[in-house]
Prior knowledge:
This protein is an all-alpha fold. It has 21 helices and no strands.
Amino acid sequence: MSLALTILAWGMIAVFLVLIMKKKLSPFTALIIVPLVFALIGSFMGLYTDQIIELKEIANPTFMDQIWILGDFVLAGIKKTSTTGIMLLFAIFYFAIMLDAGMFDPITRVMIKFANGDPLKVLVATAVVAASVSLNGDGTTTTLITCTAFIPLYKKLGMKMMNLGVIVILMNTIMNLLPWGGPTARVISVLPELNGMDSQIMQALMPGMILATLYMLGVSVYLGLKERKRIGIKVLSEKELLELTSTTDEKELANKRPKLFVPNLILTITLIAMLMIEGTFPSVFLFLVGTVIALLMNYPKLKDQKARLHENSGDAVAVVILVLGAGVFTGLFTSTGMSDALAHSLTQIIPTSFGKFWGLVVAFLSAPGTFFLSNDAFYYGVLPVLTDAGATYGWTQMELGIASLLGQAFHLLSPLVAFIYLLLQMTELEMGEWQKESAKWAIGIFVIFVVVAGVTGAVPFFK
Length: 463
């Protein structure tokens, strides 16, 4: 039965990636139909007896019970992503309202004047802003703030939106290793010897993170030079700058609230600060309240509030359904046992002769492991097995915990990461093309992480 689940798991991942890369299905349909088909195959094979007995308390499950249980699996997955979906719904509404009200107009004008039509400066500024905002460890906030600020500038200068999508995700990838970012916290919680050792872990990770950040700044410069060659430097006069930073659309002008720039900026800074401070309100609560305050403050008339919500609902719903689709994928993949089977297979394919290179083994396994599996599945399911095996070869939990984080260079490219659908929606990029372009530069981040960890001794190359 375990073999059957393993085959189904690998088959599902392969089919999903091929369909996405070849653009045969949209991400939403692929997220639902692919795992559903493979889960149904498992139903016909009667693979879910244990889950039915545990969840339904049915002693002798029938064939139809094997089918009906899929609904519970899907519901469990949707519950896990529903909070994220609701948070994204209000986050999109909040920043859309601020964009409509013109809060980002002065910021865009400053950036346009700073760049003065030079794509190189725009791309470097993108990287700096993305890295700075990513310090809060939240990919959704990074995406919303960076994209909302820069997309108008990219469009006005005719720059490639792909560069924005790549820089935002990879800068966030690096900063995601901070203890409050998620994966590092999971490693600390699952490995007993690392409890209370946050600072030691950061000391081990920081050299690689710094070099990777400098590398991404270098990538930004390289991409900026290419853009400069493609579209040139548009040296703009004051009149042209004014035209570039203003609009003549009467509908847009009617929505602007220039007199409320300072109150809107204070509200936004307060919201972001609250998001970054641990122990305050949940992000879904903050964006919910923030959206209501933004509406009341900028559009006190009921008809204007309805208009803003209606105009921006399309973008919001498009992202939310993708997040819920990711929940369906995760629910079926995890609850059917395919996730555990795939994790177990990863640990079985490594020869014992690789024991002295176990740190590198864990690092290289963490790349596909955190791409194909959720962080929870990999760090709570796979890492303990890899750590126990590594202990027999003389590897410590600290070394293997650090090694398991190095593959995070690719994690945020995974279709299981909810906020990437927001990024793709805002930049209007195709997932397959964006993944291929981002992965090309993510390889450099991964190499830096591994080499630096080896040189500093955080994860020795061999023992």
